[in-house]
Amino acid sequence: MSVGLTLRGLRKRFGGHQALAGVDLEVLAGEFFCLVGPSGCGKTTLLRCVAGFARPDAGEITCDGERLDPLPPHRRNLGMVFQNYALFPHLSVRENVAYGLRARRMPASALAKRVEQALAMVHLAHRARSFPGMLSGGEQQRVATARALAIEPRLLLMDEPLSNLDAKLRVEMRQEIRRVQRSLGITTLYVTHDQEEALALSDRIAVMNAGTLEQIGNPLEIYRNPATTFVAGFIGHTNFLPGMVESMTGGEAQVRLRNAPPTTALSDVVVRIPAGDLAPGEAVTVALRPERFSLAAPGAAGTMRGRLQEITFLGAITRLLVQIAAGPVTVELHGHAGEGLTPGAEVSLAVEGETAKVFREGE
Amino acid sequence: MASDAAAPAAIKPRSRLFSDPWQQALALVYALLLFFIVYPLAQLFVSSLRAEGGAWSLAHFHDFFALRYYRSALDHSLFVGTMVTLFSTALGVPLAAAVARWGVPGKALLRALVVLPLVSPPFVGAYSWILLLGRNGWITNLLGRIYAAVHPAAAESAASGGVLWAGTIYGPRGIILALTLNLYPFVFLLVSASLSSIDESLEEAAANLGSTPWRTFRTVTAPLLTPAILGGALLVFLTAIADFGCPVIIGEDYLVLPTLIYGLFINEMGGEPAMAATASVVLLGLTTAVLLTERWYVARRSYAMSGLRRPREREAAGRLGLSPRLRALATVFAYGIIGLSLIPAAVVLATSFFPSSGPMMHPGFSLGNYATVFRSVPRAMFNSLYLSGISTLLCVLLGVVVGYLLVRRASRVTAGLDALLMVPYAIPGTVLAVALISAFGAPPLLLTGTVALLVISYVIRRLPYAVRGVVAVLHNIEPATEEASLSLGASPGRTFRRVTLPLMMPGVISGAVMTWVQVISEISSTILLYFGAWATMSVAIYQQVLSDNFGTAAAASSLLLVAVFLPLLVFNVWQGERAAELV
């Protein structure tokens, strides 16, 4: 597959803050690519560098084989959807969408047709004469998308385009954006802090932290196989427990969890996990997803005992906070499991050790 | 791709990509401000510090504070300024409460009418109080006749010129009366804006916590209003002590600093420019000190208002527990004050249609006064329109450029520009005129005796207001709107023309209207800077009043009022339609 967008060694510093600390990235042609990370991680700066609104201190940006970074923003031919939509309040919906075409001096008949197509694509043909102030949030979002796509850009940039919508509409618009993107096959770079949005939308995701990319991969890889503790903690919920590799047997490692401070004695719990290249005696952090725990019969072999501290009923799932010797863990149970439990109860937890991720110190 | 392959190319310096005409505009604006504000002010200081022989000396300042003649003008200015400020606050704050909170009927009308006194030239107000209460005023004569009817014997001895009132309206009382009724809308506007921005839930929270309405007002509302009240009072004080037209017409022997400076400059004995410069420095020091004190105070206690809930105006008994009777009282008060402050304009209009000869008015209707104006001072009307037109145009152009630079190209360099633009706020017109004359009154920079100097003084004094208007609008236009235009392929120039400028237009036009209104009625610097045939309407009115041609002065004042109100009216109608259009 051909490459749509390439970033090489991108750096940007604002005063004392290193917003981008050398970013390398390749986005494939036609790919829906999400940049996800906490606020201040540099993802918006990266997008603004691509769009031309921020100048990188160093690095190259290439799109379809052409260097973008020497070009001013208006010569880059990229469609951008802004967080607040940035619709022109003094122009009608039609004129908003036509704006970029008029800047390109497109003949009137072709322009009218293109505007019509763009509005039809986002199901807003009937609002062409309205002004932005008269539209709902979702409609404004659609106009912004239609406006960015009308110029047939080589790349679509989206900066948290759904963050101003309410939760239900956000899920609807998410599917809408994905549908339009697929039908056009346009390379899309999408910035969000919402990891769920990133998982739902993307072909691939880059998780950003403190100006660097922590991991690039498809949603499943990122979730199942986080490369760092940061990724494991940011994408979905993860319990981090300290432990030590006790022994290795046939491709499996037995990791004994340490008791939580102040006592650092080893607890009775052993988690069996894929061995990888671990060595006995090594200190590690074990990452376990909440849904990988289940309730077990009291005293069953290989289970950990704990005291239930909180129980929250969330409909399809029930969330428990259990204090085990190694520390507090969050547990998510499906269906009817957990019914009848009250805080203070003694519980035993089984865990699917083979799904655990083990990180060495500092990973 | 190997990560060590060719260290990424360093980006070329910023200037190439962003090289734009704005940089040149910035340099030009700086040069203009330094040349026409900083340099004249420096010259003013130099003049005040030079003794007869040219040596450096504080002799002029010593004289100023030692000699009663000069010193009293300072005292008078302080007294008038303080009294006008107190009275304006006493009128403006309750009026704001009445209109914004107490459910007085006809709020929209009140809000529209209250601005009118503010834009009427103060000297027209002063003049109309003379028409009413002066030695030969309508009310004076009426009371004189009543007095004569009641005490025929006593009236015999006094001349028909009103024994009770003669002389009392001249001097400080007249100045204070006319300026108060002119300037109280400043307090009203700021306080009512602040009142409607206080989050209603704050007062509800206080009530919920068991506070009585009066206690809530004292402990919550009033502290939040303090910055607005102080801001309004400051504007009143600065305008009052800088005003020339009102004291020169109604003050007679009672000299304040601007009239003192004028007298020192335009003196039959040849004038004392050094002493005029000294008095100017004193006045400038006073205005600067007041301005800085207020800034310091407001910076220390301004509260971020986070809530978005605007207070509703209570229909029934207001939030202070206003009974219907109190509400009726508030209504009478509000309409009374506004009616009183509209009297000057009404009196001048009415007088202009009376047949007159000199100071004598006769009952009847005549357009004779207007005929006289068109016959004797046709040039003045042209001059006023011409000079105001040019100044407004220049001011708006510069305002757009400077406002854009301050907001969209903000840097340490533009921060300096911002600070420099604060200076004209503190400069009274009289002081600026003296400074400009001392800087450009002699070769090689001889500009006195040219129209340019008049235009320069107008533009400098109004520029900060024009800029502030543009800055306010620009802050409401999100940068993303312009970035959207760029990303859609419109060049920076096209973006400015098609997006930024149209969105700025309401601010630009309102700035233009306000500049026009202020410039066309300007007198304090005009009176010193005009020459020969370039007298304006305001100067002509002043001269007609001095020559006791009251009818002509009234007609000229009426024409001036039309030139002031007409653009305001057109602007308001246009804005109303625009608002309806955009929903």
Notes on the structure:
Chain A is built from 8 helices and 20 strands. Chain A is α+β, with helices and mostly antiparallel strands. Chain A folds into 2 domains: 3-234, 3-Layer(aba) Sandwich (Rossmann fold), CATH 3.40.50; 239-358, Beta Barrel (OB fold (Dihydrolipoamide Acetyltransferase, E2P)), CATH 2.40.50.100. In chain A, strands 6-7-8-3-9-10 form a 6-stranded mixed β-sheet, with helices on both faces. In chain A, a hairpin with a 2-residue loop joins strand 9 and strand 10 (212-217). The longest helix of chain A is centred in the middle third of the chain and has 18 residues, at 167-184. Chain A is elongated, with a radius of gyration of 25 Å. The model of chain A has no long low-confidence stretch (mean pLDDT 87). Chain B is an all-alpha fold. Among the domains of chain B are: 20-44 and 378-534, MetI-like (MetI-like fold), CATH 1.10.3720; 67-134 and 169-305 and 328-346, Orthogonal Bundle (MetI-like fold). Helix content of chain B is 74%, strand content 1%. In chain B, strands 1-2 form a two-stranded antiparallel sheet. In chain B, helix 2 (21-49) packs across helix 19, helix 14 (257-265) packs antiparallel against helix 15 and helix 17 packs across helix 26. The radius of gyration of chain B is 27 Å and the shape is globular. At the A-B interface, strand 1, strand 4 and helix 2 of A face helix 22 and helix 23 of B.
